[in-house]
Design a protein that fits this description.
This protein is an all-alpha fold. It contains eight helices and two strands; from the N terminus they run αααααββααα.
Length: 246
């Protein structure tokens, strides 16, 4: 188990995480145009996201830290982006059910989520947490102990920039309407599964990490929902094409 990682707690990390939440809140407030149910949906996403982030961390890594003297601090501060995404999705769906909101909100979340995670990964880099494995080569970055490591937070930040650009282009062209968030879940889940091999996280007996299992679950949820929404979209298009105008 890695013994060198620093807990996310620096002022820069906290400020960037708060900035991500603030930017998302402003974007969502402008989009809601005074609709209270949409504001409740954003709140549901935040509550579900924080709960899911904590649960995923405890299941993937937290239980392995029982013997550490600072386990309580680690359990209190540890969290997982993957669990946060699944929890936020569950929080949105529960809130929409309770408020009776029927319209899709995923495309808006597909824009603000990469921005929030990007800011969080910049915070990880500044704080020295979420490190990559020790490597040699031109792309290596040295940690606080002078060890050359794979620049995992920066690589993930680049992924978030790339997927955000792709989502904005698809949205501008009207492609995959109401399915962009599920596309993001698939893309990020598969990316994290592969990238996890280069991250310095605890591995299970099978040689993979708990985060990789969660990443595959997230990609699976996104894939199923992407397929279902595509089927509904095709059915709606067929029905529209079959209507004759006289």
């Amino acid at each position: 188990m890695p013994q060198h990682q620093i807990l996310p707690g620096s002022p820069a990390y906290a400020a960037l995480m708060a900035a991500g939440i603030f930017i998302g809140a402003i974007y969502w407030y402008r989009r809601s145009k005074g609709q209270s149910d949409l504001l409740l949906i954003y709140l549901g996403a935040l509550v579900g996201g924080f709960a899911g982030a904590k649960m995923a961390y405890l299941l993937a890594e937290g239980w392995l830290e029982w013997e550490r003297p600072d386990r309580w601090l680690r359990w209190a501060t540890g969290k997982s982006v993957l669990g946060g995404l699944l929890g936020a999705y569950a929080g949105v769906e529960i809130t929409k059910h309770l408020t009776g909101h029927k319209q899709s909100t995923g495309d808006a979340f597909a824009v603000i989520v990469p921005v929030g995670i990007l800011l969080g990964r910049v915070g990880c880099y500044l704080n020295g947490c979420c490190l990559g494995k020790p490597v040699a080569g031109v792309f290596a970055a040295r940690d606080g102990n002078g060890i050359a490591r794979w620049p995992a937070p920066l690589v993930e930040g680049l992924f978030q920039i790339g997927i955000l650009i792709a989502i904005l282009l698809l949205r501008r062209r009207g492609l995959l309407r109401d399915r962009l968030f599920f596309l993001y879940l698939v893309a990020y889940g598969l990316f994290r599964f592969g990238h996890e091999f280069l991250r310095d996280t605890p591995k299970l007996a099978s040689g993979i990490s708990g985060y990789q299992i969660i990443a595959l679950m997230m990609a699976g949820v996104g894939g199923v929902m992407l397929w279902r929404r595509s089927q509904l979209s095709s059915a709606a298009s067929s029905a529209t094409d079959g209507v004759s105008i006289s």
